């Protein structure tokens, strides 16, 4: 009767098997158990879980059917009192239904232990959310894991970061980690690079060596040289987590703008973060550039200054508005887009100062005047940057109302 | 995370930052204040701090002591305008000291003088990532 009913309720075979063979549920007669299952399922569905979520929970452990609805309600409230949102608590139950049966005193004890060990409250919440199984680990394993990672050469501050991002490491054996770090050297990384990557993107500690090797091979197939691949991955190890199609599509997107493939690859080596942005974000920024430049000019700007795509849209707009609309040096910016790196505040101060000195600024001497390297500028024009910025504040100019001062008279 | 709003970042900025660095969601205000305090320490203006955070959201996840080591390394090279350097290339803040040292050693082995290497780095804060590429 129980199995028929569970089948009728659309439980999977695996979940049915777990429910039927669960020792904690074996004490109930079938009628009572069915009643409890129906009541608890209805409650879970009423608070936002799906049938699939409940099935998943059962395949882990259906023991929660022993609990009363009142108990479950209180457990949700207790977790929310720890600062978690209801949706986060429910997600934790789906991932690790065992925690429904954990004593709240023990959970608070474990939270306090992690805080005592140096984790911030915010990090502890993330650890619980990402990997609630931590709550079922032996409390002594927390300090042991930290000690193990410190013994591998990480600073405590780094350990907190690694464990927040990859709390599954609380259950890893120290020898596994040691071997993993060592084995990554066979992929062409040195010890310092491996440590940096594991800190920036701790998930790699859970990746198989084959998986990582495949990613390196994928990048080489796309046209990057081996040493460039190492450079890209050390700078942006998150790429280990991207699918090959994802990377290829991002490259194609840049090629579609009109940039030659070899230049796209070069841009990525210089600025590997370009692969972190989704297609839409990149296209939105390119569309901003379209308001100021022709397509040919955009290609030139991007090839010579790919990092502009890592700036925020508001920052790009602010810079282009100033350099192109306000002081009107578009042609120069197209030729030397890297000058966009220079802050508007500094450029404004230099222009105003040079104007006061009566020094003429024109297209031919921009690199010797407003875009001159700081140490040469201060020597030639006898003013330190700090004094210049204090004397001519761009923000004050914004507030004036004199109907458009000409800051730069180009001949 | 609320601390980020005090840097004149709007919802769109923060959304984009989180899409690049999801760890931001697990940072508490004190951690953000601490890591941003380094930028104030090197005299970054509010405007520069905002630019650095938006351009390089991964900076927020850097370990405080690692960034301090990096700053001290640059200072030992007599680079004073660190705010300007990092504002020009906020991703430099993601470098570790060994990467700066590797770059300098590699350039020295190519016959360059330390002063020239530093000058190049100051005038082109992207040079470390460009070496061997251009």
Order of helices and strands of chain A: HHHHHHHHHHHHHHHHHHHHHHHH
* Parts with pLDDT < 50 across at least 5 consecutive residues of chain A: 398-407
> What percent strand of chain A?
under 5%
Q: What is the terminal-to-terminal distance of chain A?
A: 94 Å
The SSE order of chain B reads HHHHHHHH
Instruction: Give the strand content of chain B.
Output: under 5%
**Overall body shape of chain A:** elongated
How many strands, what sense, and barrel or not for the largest sheet of chain B? none
Query: In angstroms, what is the radius of gyration of chain B?
Result: 16 Å
Q: How many strands in all of chain A?
A: 0
Q: How many angstroms separate the termini of chain B?
A: 39 Å
Mean pLDDT of chain B: 90
Structural account:
The complex is a heterodimer of chains A (411) and B (134). In chain A, 62% of the residues lie in helices and 0% in strands. Chain A is mainly α. The radius of gyration of chain A is 30 Å and the shape is elongated. The model of chain A is unreliable at 398-407 (pLDDT under 50). Chain B has 134 residues and is an all-alpha fold. In chain B, helix 3 (46-55) runs parallel beside helix 5. The radius of gyration of chain B is 16 Å and the shape is elongated. At the A-B interface, helix 8, helix 10, helix 12, helix 14 and helix 16 of A face helix 1, helix 3, helix 4, helix 5 and helix 7 of B.
What does this entry show, briefly?
The complex is a heterodimer of chains A (411) and B (134). With 411 residues, chain A is mainly alpha-helical. Chain A has 24 helices and no strands.
What topology emerges from the helices and strands here?
The complex is a heterodimer of chains A (411) and B (134).
Chain A lengths: L1 H7 L4 H9 L8 H17 L4 H10 L8 H13 L4 H10 L8 H13 L4 H10 L9 H12 L4 H10 L8 H10 L7 H10 L8 H13 L4 H10 L8 H14 L3 H10 L8 H12 L4 H10 L8 H14 L3 H6 L8 H14 L16 H8 L3 H7 L2 H6 L12
Chain B lengths: L10 H10 L8 H13 L4 H10 L8 H13 L5 H7 L8 H13 L4 H10 L3 H4 L4
Helix pairs in contact in B: 3-5
């Amino acid at each position: 009767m129980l199995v028929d009913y569970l089948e009728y309720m659309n439980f999977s075979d695996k979940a049915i098997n777990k429910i039927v063979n669960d020792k904690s549920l074996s004490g109930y007669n079938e009628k009572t158990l069915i009643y409890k299952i129906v009541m608890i399922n209805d409650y879970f569905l009423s608070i936002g879980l799906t049938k699939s979520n409940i099935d998943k929970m059962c395949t882990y452990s259906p023991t929660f059917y022993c609990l009363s609805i009142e108990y479950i309600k209180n457990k949700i409230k207790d977790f929310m009192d720890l600062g978690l949102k209801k949706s986060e608590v429910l997600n934790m139950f789906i991932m690790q239904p065992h925690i429904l049966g954990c004593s709240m005193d023990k959970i608070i004890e474990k939270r306090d232990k992690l805080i005592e060990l140096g984790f911030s409250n915010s990090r502890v919440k993330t650890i619980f959310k990402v990997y609630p199984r931590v709550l079922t680990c032996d409390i002594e394993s927390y300090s042991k894991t930290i000690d193990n990672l410190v013994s591998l050469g990480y600073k405590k501050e780094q350990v907190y970061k690694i464990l927040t991002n990859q709390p599954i490491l609380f259950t890893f054996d120290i020898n596994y980690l040691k071997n993993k770090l060592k084995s990554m050297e066979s992929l062409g990384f040195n010890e310092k690079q491996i440590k940096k990557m594991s800190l920036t993107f701790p998930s790699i500690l859970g990746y198989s060596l084959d998986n990582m090797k495949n990613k390196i091979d994928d990048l080489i197939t796309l046209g990057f040289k081996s040493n460039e691949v190492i450079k890209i991955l050390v700078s942006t190890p998150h790429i280990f987590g991207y699918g090959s199609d994802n990377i290829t599509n991002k490259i194609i997107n840049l090629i579609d703008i009109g940039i030659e493939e070899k230049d796209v690859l070069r841009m990525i080596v210089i600025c590997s973060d370009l692969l972190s942005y989704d297609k839409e974000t990149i296209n939105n920024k390119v569309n901003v550039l379209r308001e100021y430049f022709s397509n040919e000019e955009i290609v030139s700007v991007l090839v010579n200054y790919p990092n502009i795509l890592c700036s925020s849209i508001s920052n790009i707009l602010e810079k282009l508005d100033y350099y192109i609309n306000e002081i009107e040096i578009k042609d120069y910016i197209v030729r030397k887009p890297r000058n966009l790196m220079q802050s508007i505040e500094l450029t404004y101060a230099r222009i105003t100062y040079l104007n006061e000195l009566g020094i003429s600024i024109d297209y031919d001497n921009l690199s010797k005047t407003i875009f001159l390297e700081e140490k040469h500028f201060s020597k030639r024009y006898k003013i330190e940057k700090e004094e210049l910025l204090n004397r001519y504040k761009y923000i004050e100019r914004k507030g004036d109302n004199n109907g458009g001062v000409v800051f730069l008279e180009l001949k | 995370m609320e601390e980020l709003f005090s840097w004149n970042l709007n919802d769109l900025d923060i959304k984009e930052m989180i899409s690049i660095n999801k760890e931001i969601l697990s940072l508490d205000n004190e951690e953000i204040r601490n890591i941003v305090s380094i930028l104030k320490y090197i005299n970054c203006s509010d405007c520069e701090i905002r630019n650095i955070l938006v351009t390089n959201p991964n900076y927020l996840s850097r370990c405080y002591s690692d960034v301090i080591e990096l700053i001290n390394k640059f200072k030992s090279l007599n680079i004073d305008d660190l705010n300007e350097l990092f504002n020009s290339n906020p991703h430099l803040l993601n470098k570790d000291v060994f990467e700066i040292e590797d770059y300098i050693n590699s350039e020295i082995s190519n016959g360059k003088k330390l002063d020239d290497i530093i000058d190049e780095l100051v005038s082109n804060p992207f040079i470390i990532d460009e070496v061997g590429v251009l």
